Amino acid sequence: MTVLTETARTPGHAAHKSGTLSPREQGVLWDMEEDFWTSGDDSARATTATNAVMIFPYPPGILQGDQIWTQLRRRTGWRSVVMAERRVTRCGDIAILTYRVSAEKTDVPIYKALCASTYLGDDDKWLRVSHQQTAVT
């Protein structure tokens, strides 16, 4: 016997319940995201869940947990970043930041990408659970 469920399409489903973040909460998340780019891997690690998943243009590709920090040492410490087309989407305790980045580092061509970071709010603290970058040429 097959039972069909309409959970994903039911307006009462948690995925359909959106909210807004206060300007202060949005500021906290955008500051965390900028620090992720500019402050080095120790700062990024402090705001990232232990088993987070990150996807970078190949190589390095898909990374999870400790793999992230081995690779991120080479990918942090940008001198400046500009995040344009910023959007924040909230669904319950989850906030998704999407943006277009232009990042500068000494002796490296300007890096441009489309990015998305997902944060989980828990006990008044936000932690990054995923980050994805798609390079823009």
Topology of this structure?
Layout: E1 18-19, H1 23-38, H2 41-46, E2 48-55, E3 62-64, H3 66-72, E4 80-91, E5 94-105, E6 108-122, E7 125-135
Parallel strand pairs: 2-7
Antiparallel strand pairs: 1-4, 2-3, 4-5, 5-6, 6-7
| Average pLDDT number | 87
Spans of at least 5 consecutive residues whose pLDDT stays below 50 are: none
Number of strands: 7
Order of helices and strands: EHHEEHEEEE
Question: Which geometry do the CA atoms define?
Answer: globular
Strand content: over 45%
Structural class by helix and strand composition: alpha+beta
Percent range of helical residues? 10-25%
Secondary structure tally, helices: 3
Strands across the major sheet, in which order?
A: 1-4-5-6-7-2-3
Characterise the protein shown here:
- The chain is α+β, with helices and mostly antiparallel strands and 137 residues long.
- The chain is built from 3 helices and 7 strands.
- A 7-stranded mixed beta sheet has the order 1-4-5-6-7-2-3.
- Strand 5 (94-105) and strand 6 form a beta hairpin.
- The mean pLDDT is 87.
Short characterization:
The chain is α+β, with helices and mostly antiparallel strands.
Which descriptors would you attach to this protein?
21% helix; alpha+beta; 7-stranded mixed β-sheet; 46% strand; 137 residues
